[in-house]
Amino acid sequence: MSTLILSICLFVMMSVPGALSEPPAETLEADVIIYGGSFASCAAAVQAAPLLPPGRSILMIVPESRLGSVGTVGGQNFFDIRRWNGEIVTRGSFIKWFNAYGQGYPPEAMARALQTAVTAGNKVKILFNCEIEEVSKSADGRIASLSVRPVMRNPETLKVLWAGRAFTVKGGIFIDGSETGRLARLAGAGHTVGRQDAGGDMHQQAVTLMFQVRGINPAAASAYRNAAGQAEFFFYQDVDGSGLGWGGKEFVTRDPVIGAYNSGGHRFRIKGYNVAEDSEKGT
Question: Where does residue 130 rank: exposed (0-12), middle (13-18), buried (19+ CB within 10 A)?
Answer without folding.
Answer: buried
